[in-house]
Amino acid sequence: MGARASGGAGAAGARASGGAKRKRGDRQPAERLPVARVCVDVPLAHLDRPFDYRVPADLDEAARPGVRVRVRFGGQLVDGWLLDRVESSELPKLSYLERVVSPERVLTPEVAALSRAVADRYAGSLADVLRLAVPPRHARTESAAAPCEPPGPAPSIDSSRWARYPAGAALLRALEDGRAPRAVWSALPGEEWPARLAEAAAATARGGRGAVLVVADNRDLDRLDAALASTLGPGRHVALSAALGPAKRYRAFLAAARGGATVVVGTRAAMFAPVPDLGLVAIWDDGDDLHAEPRAPYPHAREVLLTRAQLAGAAALIGGYARTAEAQQLIETGWAHPIAADRETVRRYAPAVAPTGDDAQLARDPGAVTARLPSVAWQAARSALAAGAPVLVQVPRRGYLPAVSCADCRAPARCPHCSGPLQLGSAGATAGCRWCGRAATAYACPACGGRRLRAAVTGARRTAEELGRALAGVPVRTSGRDEILTSVPAAPALVVATPGAEPVAAGGYGAVLLLDAWALLTRADLRATEEALRRWLAAAALARPARDGGRVVVVADGSLPTVQALLRWDPVWLAARELAERRELGFPPAARVATLTGAPDAVADLLAAARLPAAAQLLGPVPAPAAPEQERMLIRVPRGQAAALARALHEAVGVRTARKAASPVRVQIDPLDLL
After folding, report:
1. What CATH number is attached to the domain comprising 337?
2. What is the Cα–Cα distance from 276 to 127, expressed in whole angstroms?
3. Which whole-number Å values give the CA distances from 70 to 17, 77, 342, in the listed order?
């Protein structure tokens, strides 16, 4: 777990005993007392190693590996996690453990090893990862929680739905036999994916092992939680999410740590859940950016779970309607095997998909190339409504008019105070700034002097308003960040939703309209193509099969590769294409890229202290996207030197923290917002 040092080491990391040693009267001599190795909760990179402390006789029974402790460090009383117990230390003078916060063993050896590996992978410190892995203690919940008994054998499952995939039944057999298969699952359109994941967890439980299942948001968590309750029965699993609140989250954590629940499901907060005898880790929709942790060291749930599967000898399952370049690389390198239905089965369950920019559509509707809702989309919507089915309309942007421009010269309208983009919140509202919130009551275009504004980007609420006027008498509902619908009945209605907030329709949608495709395809993002297909497939998968009248209309040119992948329902082809292009360009996951963001002097200082691998390539610096006064530097290395890059950056950060450098530098490995 790192180099050992005295528990009294000061902020500079000296190996001398510091702070007053705790007096123990006439108890055992210090030489005979056992030693605890502690990870102190200090956010300084140069102190990222365990420290040795004497265990006094009165704490000997409670001071077990995995408990929370309080120790003297640099003259202060700080928190820590007890990692290990040994008989002696190579250091002559040690401080004592001050106290054991609780005898509850919240850090298992498996999670401790995983946390160390994640810290090394992302150039972070163990203390930072443990703050993500172990939720804050809730004393009342801890004392009130009843002892947990391991559940009995899991019930038998129906694997017939997995049989639609040639390798699906073999996956469940391997899990039930206690083996560790690794698979990337391409779900069929309309697949009841929560039930399939619940069946995989049940097969793992029947084999006597535990499972950790991770989803992107609480809406998916609720669906998977209900599926697990139906498949496993009551009391066999727990849901773990940061949104539960301190008490409920800690109660669920304790149920897993004490062995009372062998299956844990949750958002990214569950990726470190302490499940005994782990047999399966699974993640749904690994391309969703909610799987990326926004706190240091910024790990991604997919990478954490794959590392965990490798260390624990557990099975790994990555599922989704789309496929990321990272998942495709796992298959091409042989680390994982694909689970996908044959083309005939895919066609049986897929809706009919049509673009609006092909030659046939343009011949019938010359305005389709510029219309926001061409005639083919109107026809699909009216046919579905006439058949008594709901219609889903996916709009990339929320709000009313999130961006406006001058009606005369089309120049983007910006705030005269801070230059932020102007928006309209409703039909009769005054334009206001999205950044500073000021109202632009007397706006005049600086380019031409015009005072009239027009829509540059149309949001979900404006779209709902327009559709409501065009289709009078049809109920119109919206689903977005402010109000998310979970389901809609099988009745005529228009549902306007932003990506990720699409409700499930009973019996499926009769039509799905994918508007403003340009807003997704033209994003300045490495993953723009991949992300556009992921969002489209997630919405299109909610439509009825083509044989039942289900239609999907994407307002985009049918010759685009992303649209072609949607038309054929072939995310594997696009993922392989994306991965090949990234290999050629040297982008993740084909290469490892680190970003350094901070003040120019601080970035230069860190680079000067870093002993980078020989093949490291420096790109930049350029102004940071979110803070123009800062700059960002990219460092690219081949995958074979990824560990050396992370180690060099962590050591360089440690040099700066030891010198008490004033300006911090944010270090991220393979961030999602690379471009």
Report:
1. 3.40.50.300
2. 22
3. 16, 6, 58
Helix (H) or strand (E) holding 199: helix 193-206
User: What is the band of 26 on the pLDDT scale with cuts at 50, 70, 90?
Assistant: very low
Pseudo-torsion of CA 120, 126, 128, 132, nearest 10°? Answer: 90
At residue 504, the 3 state secondary structure works out as: strand
Which comes out higher in pLDDT, residue 70 or 471? 70
Residue (of 55, 59, 67, 232) closest to 157 by Cα position: 232
Of 93, 72, 94, 69, the closest CA to residue 82 belongs to 69
Give domain status of residue 218, yes or no.
yes
When comparing pLDDT for 409 and 41, which is higher? Answer: 41
Cα diameter, the chain? 97
Question: 265: part of which helix (H) or strand (E)?
Answer: strand 263-266
Asked if the model's pLDDT at residue 458 lies above 90, the reply is no
CB 68 within 8 A of CB 111: no
Question: Which range of residues forms the domain containing residue 414?
Answer: 349-580
Q: What is the pLDDT of residues 295-311, one digit of tens each?
A: 999 999 999 999 999 99
User: Which range, of 10-24, 31-45, 522-536, averages the lowest pLDDT?
Assistant: 10-24
User: pTM of the predicted model, to two decimals?
Assistant: 0.88
Q: Is the distance from CB of 583 to CB of 575 less than 8 angstroms?
A: no
Beta strands in 461-590 (DSSP E): 476-479, 487-488, 494-497, 504-505, 511-514, 551-554
